[in-house]
Model the fold of this input.
Amino acid sequence: MLEAEQHSWYPIAASTDLPFRHTYQGQLLGQEFAVWRADDGYVNVWENRCLHRGVRLSIGINDGHELKCQYHGWRYANRTAECTYIPAHPADAPARTLCNRSFTAVERYGFIWSNGTPIGKMPKIKELENTTPFALRGIPINGSMDLVVTALKEYSFQPSEKVTKQGAQTNLVSTEYGVCILVSKDGDAATTALFFVHPLDSGRCVIRGVLNTTPSEKHKLDVLKHHNQLLTLLRDRIEAIANLLPTRAPIIPRVFNISEDSKHLSKPASSRPDAALRVQVAKKWQTAEGITGFKLVSIEGPLPTYQPGAHIDVHMPNGLIRQYSLTNGPGEADHYTIGVKLEMESQGGSKCMHEQVREGDVLAISEPCNSFPLRQDAIKTIFVAGGIGITPLLAMSRALHHSRLNYELHYFVQSKAHMAFPDVLESQKDTLVTYLGLTPDQTGNQLSVILKEYKLAQHLYICGPGPMLEITRKIASNLGWPEAAIHFEYFKNTNEIDDSSSFKIDLARSAMTLQVPAGKSILDVLRENSIDMPSSCQQGACGTCRLNVLEGEPDHQDVFLNESEKQNGKSIMTCVSRAKSKRLVLDI
Amino acid sequence: MQVEQKIDPVANNLWHVISALEEVKANIIHKTQLLGKHVSFSKTDTGIPCVWHTNPTDVAGDAVDLTSINTHLAVQHRYGYIWTSLGNPTEDVFQIPEYAENHRRNIHAATIGVHVSAPRAIENFLDMGHFPYVHTNILGIEPHTEVKEYDVNISVDETEILATRCLFYQPMASAASDGGSDVEYVYRVPHPYCSVLYKSSALDENRMDVIALFVQPLDQERVRAHMMLSLLDVDNTDISIRAFQQTIFGQDKPILENQFPKRLPLDPRMETPIRADKSAIAYRRWLSKKGLTYGVIPVAA
Done:
């Protein structure tokens, strides 16, 4: 096909083709699209192929926030087209690089406009600006684009106000860029019609017509009928000619390699500090006693998709970096919400957020990172939150709520005034149980009740202060909860880090041997030797810098791994943990 | 779309199923397609199958004197089906020893046309992850979606892929239990277009039900899938067993027909394999190594 055609804007669907939670199959120059509108109004135009096994996404399910593939239930986010969940591996967070191919789309004049390889902005059409455009029904035709354009030049119709009369004069105004602009006049009544020819393939098109003004209610139906009849006759004429011509070879759409594209889309794993995003504080408010809420919005372009449980690194004006969990529910694509508790012993992180950062400020943040992934294959999920630990669990419970999965949210908090995000909690009220001002002993008793009955395929997620986390894990374990069903996230590692040992590390894939001296972490040494390693909290709490251990005995000092993971020694948090053996072989 | 009909030597020399023998009327012409070529077939009064390249005068449904067919294709009658080859098969049809076991019911369950390539149909047969989504309430149910770690081995002589320790949660796993439980599956791929599935049976812990899928490539992007069962079940009628299998396949068909591209891409970068796809990854590599190109998109050189 002509290159110019690949770069032009075409109406690929009518706005009315996208009713509530529908998925529409579109096509342009041989390339198929899955077109769907999310509940926030955003129109997604994606390559019509699931990244996994190539099943058409247009047969997928639009849940208002995500599109779910029919074959294996993979989910893709509104706007960014990132894969957010792979049900076959519910314990794993999908790689950020798994992203569908999406196309630029503009909704205007009653149509969805897109193109294969976008160049420039969608031009404004002066005949349709400052008017009330009225889209006609699309007419599909088995005929090539040039045949259709030629036939449209001869199209004649009645102006809307005199639609039931006859004898109007229709003049062709322009056929630039394959758009036929015609004006019909009858006395003082005049209507301008624009006909766009949308090429599905080499031999098939859709005529998408639009009138410059919406007819009065009285004439609307007659106008639609009038054009429908005329265009149907036009179609018959075109198809009669097309049938006599040799069939054109179809345009074979290019099948792109997905992995290479993904590589291209994702930024290379960069060394810390990675603060790829700039966001603006759109709102700062006190959401509870000692807790400030921040609503962060994008400065340019859409925000990357988050998964429930994800956190971001916030790079503060005072140079400190802190991790905060996103509390967002599904589909909140235009902002991130975090809650920051003012820590009494703050080293300046939470203090800076509370005191210095103001509405309108720009903050540098990392892309969301998920080391607390939520399984969505549980018969029942129990969330136990302590204080500010509610934040990641709010995102999780809202995700399960949206999918109508079974869960309970238990919130241990000092007093009613300390309950963060009360408006969001309100939406969870059917499953929320709050426990106000309990002593540690009372908390323990309550937890024993909450966790008393373990059943297969139940999962427990805990987030809160260190001591509460410890006690909850212990109670669950005593009541028969297997380690694999207990998921937790510490805010911070309160263990004293002993970095007095020195040892060697062999890097299996990089074929290097390095010495880790006392006073330096494995992560420091890797970075000094230009080895790219992502990391976030730098204190063994978030799991970002995890590496697989192939040989040697790690000296675990983190709070991320659970006991059996620590015992089997197969992975290590490189920011704090060290070696008991003289040498570790790492999979990097 | 015009599909290139070049047959590679590997596919050409394989045995392919073209029909269940029981569906063939003696001394009557039947027509089908194999690897893009038209073939005619019939059987004698004593049930001996005969297959030949379609003559211009062949009309399906007409009577035929099989003794007048001079040049016919290689033919075998195995597991109730007619197997033929357009080339010169170097090996025998693969073994399904269970077929000859006592106390089993061998049933031809269905022949279903699907607009997809043969390797896509095989890969779907090997896949457990789609059970909760495609075979909802029968072979799987949300939220039990996890595909647990399983083993995949390729036989020493590279003739066969074997996937074992495959467990997947099935609601109403047996009539005897009211709840669901994990069901064990074993998958064999002894032929590029055929697979044999073994499924644990509630009736006998030591033996498994066998479901074999023989895919007949009509062309690169169209198949007929023949399903053979060898079951321990003594209670259900043939009709209800067939209806069950046809329901399952009827659920797969629209998914398979919505896969793009229709031919199986062997370059791992063209799609996104995950751990659950271990058997499919092995299958794609195995096809690549065999040099099979019919029904696939080979890795670009």
